[in-house]
Amino acid sequence: MARAAGPRGPKRARLAVLAAIALAAAAALSQSAGSTAAILSGSPRAVGPSRAGAGSIRISSTMEPADHATALAASDASGPSGATGQTGASGPTGPTSPTPPARYRVVGCRSHGDVAYLHGPDRREVAIGFDDGPAPDTPAFVGMLERSRAHATFFMIGDQVTRAYRATMLRELRDGDVLGDHTFTHPYLTSSPDVRGQLEDTIRAIHGLTGYTPCVFRPPYGAYDSSIIATARSLGLATVLWNVDPSDYTQPGTATIEQRVLEQVQAGSIVISHDGGGPRGQTLAAYPKIIAALRARGYRIVTIPELLGFRPVYNPCIRLCDGIGVPRSAVPRDAIIERAP
Ligand SMILES: [Zn+2]
């Protein structure tokens, strides 16, 4: 396999060094009843998915979540352990058997922050959110994004997340699009008696169909307060608004939608548009031109989690790949890899 050679060498060496340092330090600390957390909380990206030393990694309950995930990533890379349950059985220095490479699938993302995000950092990046789906036009939006080689964030109404859209949602995930929470019934949350239920039921609907847990939430009508942000945060959701709004839902015409977005957009912008809530042909027709024009200005089109620095979460998968499993080499570099539940 082409991916077996080059890049693994340095990582293997680094891992071995890190493991040696960690073990030595842990041994020293164990005499003084110290915590190993500080020792093991080095840069999560330093420890790559290498086969080397995987058997020597031990998960400490005092490790930070990111380190925990990284250590698991190292052990997960030792092969499709779920198939045999024999991870590490050949010993820490044993030869690698010719097992097929493990595959990984996206299962969510990890957000942070106790604010409502209106935009991202001042970089040449723009994120587009499509709200109020899944809906009859959603598959056409996914196709448009595929042809444009762009990714978007779909804020979904939980009540509409039905089995009929499962294939479309999995296609979105396979493409690298992001699924977000847009409440279950699209109420004004500031006067809703059950904010938590609105968010939780939608998470459950999306997860139930796709195995994906959203980490971003957009309040309908942009109506939110600090208590809604806190409730969302407690469910792992960042509250995401926008700073570019072409009011595409009023169907002002394709050219007007395009013109409004391009007039308002700036570095780090978050754009709101709609793939549901009515016929969205105008929006659909506008975006290939919008995306091309933004790229001509030097902007990258990214998802909202990517814009805000929220990392995707991947699990190794065997029978639960849902057709969206990818080899380790195709997992994004910034991904958190966790063991499947
Ligand atoms: Zn909406």
Quick description:
The protein has 341 residues and is α/β, with parallel strands linked by helices.
Description:
The protein is of the alpha/beta class and 341 residues long. It folds into 2 domains: 2-101, no CATH class; 110-308, TIM Barrel (Alpha-Beta Barrel), CATH 3.20.20. It is 36% helix and 15% strand. The chain has helices at 8-31, 37-40, 65-76, 81-84, 138-148, 166-175, 195-210, 226-234, 254-264, 281-296, 304-308, and strands spanning 103-110, 116-117, 125-133, 153-156, 178-181, 216-217, 238-240, 270-274, 300-302, 311-317, 326-327, 336-337. The strands form 3 sheets. Strands 3, 4, 5, 8 and 9 form a 5-stranded parallel β-sheet that branches. Strand 4, helix 6 and strand 5 form a beta-alpha-beta unit. The two termini are 29 Å apart. Mean pLDDT is 79; it is low at 1-94. It binds zinc ion. Zinc ion binds at residues 131-132, 182, 186, 220. Zinc ion is lined by residues 131-132, 182, 186, 220.
What's the layout of helices and strands?
Blueprint: H1 8-31, H2 37-40, H3 65-76, H4 81-84, E1 103-110, E2 116-117, E3 125-133, H5 138-148, E4 153-156, H6 166-175, E5 178-181, H7 195-210, E6 216-217, H8 226-234, E7 238-240, H9 254-264, E8 270-274, H10 281-296, E9 300-302, H11 304-308, E10 311-317, E11 326-327, E12 336-337
Parallel strand pairs: 2-7, 3-4, 3-8, 3-9, 4-5, 6-7, 10-12
Antiparallel strand pairs: 1-10, 1-11
Helix pairs in contact: 5-6, 5-10, 9-10
The structure holds zinc ion.
Using brief descriptors, characterize the structure shown.
15% strand; 2 domains; binds zinc ion; TIM Barrel; five-stranded parallel β-sheet; four-stranded mixed β-sheet; alpha/beta; disordered N terminus; 341 residues; 11 helices
